[in-house]
Amino acid sequence: MKKVLSLILAMCMVLSLCACGGSASEGEAGYKVAMITDYGDITDQSFNQTTYEACKAFCESQGIEFTYYKPAGDNTADRVAMVDKAVDEGYNVIVMPGYAFGGTIVEAAGNYPDVKFIALDVAAGDILEAGVAAKGETYDYNPDNWNVTDYYNSDNVYCAIFQEELCGYMAGYAAVKLGYTKLGFLGGMAVPAVMRYGYGFVQGADAASAELGITTEMKYAYGNQFYGDADITAAVDTWCAAGTEIVFACGGGIYTSAAEAAQKVGGKVIGVDVDQAAIIDGAYGENMTVTSAMKGLYPATYDALEDVIVNDKWADYAGKITTLGLISGDNPEANYVQIPMESTQWADGFSQDDYKQMVADMYAGTITVSNDISAEPATTNCTVEWLGNLK
Q1: Pick from 47, 98, 46, 49: nearest CA to 280
Q2: Cα 125 versus chain centre, distance
Q3: Residues 6+ apart with CB under 8 A from 97
Q4: I need a labelling partner for 263 at 20 to 30 A (CA). Which of 14, 204, 309, 319 fits?
Q5: CA count, 13 A, side-chain hemisphere, 201
């Protein structure tokens, strides 16, 4: 009888542990996370690498199986093939970084209603462009005129986008305050995220110029691709020869052309998406990177996975396209858009305290930044030469 009672007590303890979560909470049980790269690799020192590192860190902390897949080519069919492969191999949370996954969401999400898709930097317009085309309709590039949920299975998809115009503004404002009066913007392709970065950069440079009572100049162009090459480097060479002092290189690997051109004349660059000082300075010259316009890719990825898997809050995410920006006026490093506190080349013209005050003013609404990309921003003190596509 004592043995029976002991066995019953032991079973009760086990059941109690299970109810409390034991070694894994109810929300974590059965989850396997996969990340799919867009057109780059997890060593790109940018979007893919940061997303990969956030997924890996989260999964290791929770004892969850994780892997990543790299598509064979830069097209929707190859990205969808990686989704199919991931699901076939048992992965049921799929993380996808970059606007290029709009078509993947349209084509794949409905095929796997039990799989949760977390898409970073994928906006309604990215989904609509693919979805409308798939239905043989004509997209007018105005998401407000369409019901995006008509074009994809929103029940199992969460998208996060960023207010790039805010950190673009920060970078442009900082550059002028730090003494640079001849600037350049070299974007990858004229997609919404890159344009918001660029138009924010113009607004920030113009605002700082007005505060200082000076006139500045900017050359503004897109490479029409997300990597540097000899032709784009040659174009930026002409900018530098004409006096351009600093270039905001915005779009994947296109920074290589900006850095190569800057290296020849002792010029400077501004990084994008993540703090690119280490990679750019290490390859092209010490102290070349003045600052970087950063998205909080790491916390956005980590926080979403934690909420969905650990806290079992998928209902709060499903079908949402959330815009991430400033969440603190007191702590710039808590925000989803920022410039780096450690590697920015602070000086008397623009100190950490000045940056903190600017963020506080942006958070309070004293400083406003337009996210409108339908027309080039108007300027008063920064003369912009709009050069279109270099290629």
Answers
A1: 46
A2: 16
A3: 35, 37, 38, 47, 48, 51, 119, 120, 121, 297, 301
A4: 204
A5: 32
Q: Would you place residue 289 in the very low, low, confident or very high pLDDT band (cuts 50, 70, 90)? A: very high
Average pLDDT of 245-251? Answer: 96
Paired with 384 in beta bridges are 218
Contact predicate 124/106, CB 8 Å:
no
| pLDDT given for residue 157 in this prediction | 98
Q: Which residue carries 């929707």 as its tokens?
A: 76
Q: How far apart are CA 304 and CA 298, in angstroms?
A: 10
User: Is 12 within 8 Å of 262 (Cβ atoms)?
Assistant: no
Q: How many angstroms from the chain centroid is the CA of residue 256?
A: 19
Q: Which domains does the chain have, with CATH numbers?
A: 29-162+298-324 (3.40.50.2300), 164-294+336-389 (3.40.50.2300)
Residue type at 117? F
pLDDT digits (tens, 9 = 90+) for 152-191: 999 999 999 999 999 999 999 999 999 999 999 999 999 8
